[in-house]
Amino acid sequence: MTSQAKVAIYPGSFDPITYGHMDIVKRAAGLVDHLIIGVLMNKHKNPLFSLEERVALIEEAVHHMPNVSVQSFDGLTIDFAEKVHARMIIRGLRAMTDFDYEFQMAHTNQTLNPDIETVFLSTGLDFSYVSSSVSKEIFLYGGDVSKLVPAHVIDAMQRKVKQIQEDA
Ligand code: PNS
């Protein structure tokens, strides 16, 4: 990748990746030379999937996209952006309810490094209600999540629940 190449990161927890995330990935990948999906280790949250599992699920979801790659990171998003020479941080907006948190995060990152822009992309209308937490909740109560997450993620959630039940 040359120093002229437009690199963006799309950071998040991705626990797990949803069709909403994939919609943003597709839109962002069309705007930049290289999109790096940054998966936060997130010690403070208690994710359903391990970091390695989240990365693997994303890799399977985006393997057909030649300018998209996946990396995990720990610490500040802005440090990760600097490390991979990204000029942009991509975030998806589903509704106005996302706005306060996202704007605060964008301003924080802007303060930390004014040369890196946060770019907000709106999800397609079909995905405005989709989130990782909603997907997990519906799945855990036996609902149909086939419109929310890809088939391989449903398989992984099934395996995970079975494993949790066996370990209990
Ligand atoms: O998918 P999420 O959980 O909404 O993603 C949030 C994320 C990972 C982008 C945000 O929590 C983050 O950037 N965390 C890393 C710590 C950081 O950089 N904090 C300063 C900006 S608020």
Task: Please describe the topology of this protein.
Layout (H helix, E strand, L loop, with lengths): L6 E6 L6 H11 L4 E7 L10 H12 L5 E6 L3 H7 L4 E6 L5 H14 L4 E6 L9 H9 L10 H17 L1
Parallel strand pairs: 1-2, 1-4, 2-3, 4-5
The structure holds 4'-phosphopantetheine.
The site of 4'-phosphopantetheine has 10 residues, from strand 1, helix 3 and helix 4.
Overview of this structure, please?
By secondary structure, the protein is α/β, with parallel strands linked by helices. The protein has one domain (7-167): Rossmann fold (3-Layer(aba) Sandwich). Helices cover 42% and strands 18% of the residues. The protein has 6 helices and 5 strands. The protein has helices at 19-29, 51-62, 77-83, 99-112, 132-140, 151-167; strands spanning 7-12, 34-40, 68-73, 88-93, 117-122. A 5-stranded parallel β-sheet has the order 3-2-1-4-5, sandwiched between helices. The longest helix has 17 residues, at 151-167. The chain is globular. The mean pLDDT is 94. The structure holds 4'-phosphopantetheine (PNS). 4'-phosphopantetheine (PNS) binds at residues 11-13, 40, 76-78, 105, 108-109. 4'-phosphopantetheine (PNS) binds next to strand 1, helix 3 and helix 4.
